[in-house]
């Protein structure tokens, strides 16, 4: 099985996440996209996240009905800081015959050399990096000596072009805190969940 791994805090999950996931699934011919909510994202340790249960419930509402999308609580169950390399190693043990693909945004590619054991990540999974439509191809030389040249060129050929969707979880939390509309930015069921749970309100 060709399995795409999409990690993040998903606080909250929004339509940009879903469009990115489906763009990667279609362009790379993936069988499954696994949404992997982080317990403690390494780059967000100073921010209090919405509870794991609530983030999981929002994800379930967002991806329900799509048989090619699934949710994994692997990082939540493991607890602590969620390092991608640990997750991929665990997935490799659980699914030794699967081909793993790691979904990334263009910003993540720039920061990738600072991740824990980035070279091992590139051995465990193919990087599927998304760039906004109309922009020039991404520069994979940022990976430097972490990845052999042939592997870097393969990653560059695998990059995914997706529509320009200006939605961010940070903006959505701010809108919710101010009582502003989330309509057409998150799935309707997620919008209703946020309203009923009074998430992100001061």
In short:
The chain contains 9 helices and 6 strands. With 202 residues, the chain is α/β, with parallel strands linked by helices. It has a single domain, classed as Rossmann fold (3-Layer(aba) Sandwich).
Q: In words, what does this structure look like?
A:
The chain has a single domain (2-166), classed as 3-Layer(aba) Sandwich (Rossmann fold), CATH 3.40.50.620. It has helices spanning 15-28, 52-63, 74-78, 84-94, 106-111, 118-124, 149-157, 169-177, 188-197, and strands spanning 2-8, 32-37, 69-71, 99-105, 126-132, 160-162. It has a 6-stranded parallel sheet with strand order 3-2-1-4-5-6, sandwiched between helices. 41% of the residues lie in helices and 16% in strands. Strand 5 (126-132), helix 7 and strand 6 (160-162) form a beta-alpha-beta unit. It starts with a strand and ends in a 5-residue tail after the last helix.
List the helices and strands and how they pair.
Elements: E1 2-8, H1 15-28, E2 32-37, H2 52-63, E3 69-71, H3 74-78, H4 84-94, E4 99-105, H5 106-111, H6 118-124, E5 126-132, H7 149-157, E6 160-162, H8 169-177, H9 188-197
Parallel strand pairs: 1-2, 1-4, 2-3, 4-5, 5-6
Helix pairs in contact: 2-9, 4-6
């Amino acid at each position: 099985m060709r399995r795409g791994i999409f990690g993040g805090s998903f606080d909250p999950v929004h339509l940009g996440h879903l469009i990115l996931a489906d763009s990667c699934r279609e362009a790379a011919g993936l069988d499954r996209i696994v949404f992997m909510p982080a317990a403690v994202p390494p780059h967000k340790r100073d921010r209090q996240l919405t509870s794991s249960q609530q983030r999981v419930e929002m994800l379930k509402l967002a991806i329900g009905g799509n048989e090619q999308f699934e949710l994994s609580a692997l990082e939540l169950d493991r607890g602590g800081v969620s390092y991608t390399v640990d997750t991929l190693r665990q997935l490799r043990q659980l699914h030794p015959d699967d081909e793993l693909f790691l979904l990334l945004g263009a910003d993540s590619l720039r920061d990738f050399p600072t991740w824990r054991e980035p070279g091992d990540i590139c051995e465990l999974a193919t990087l599927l990096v998304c760039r906004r439509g109309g922009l020039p191809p991404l520069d994979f030389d940022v990976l430097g000596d972490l990845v052999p040249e042939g592997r870097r060129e393969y990653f560059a050929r695998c990059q995914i072009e997706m529509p320009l969707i200006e939605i961010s979880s940070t903006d959505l939390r701010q809108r919710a805190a101010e009582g502003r509309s989330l309509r057409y930015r998150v799935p309707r069921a997620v919008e209703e969940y946020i309203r009923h749970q009074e998430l992100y309100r001061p």
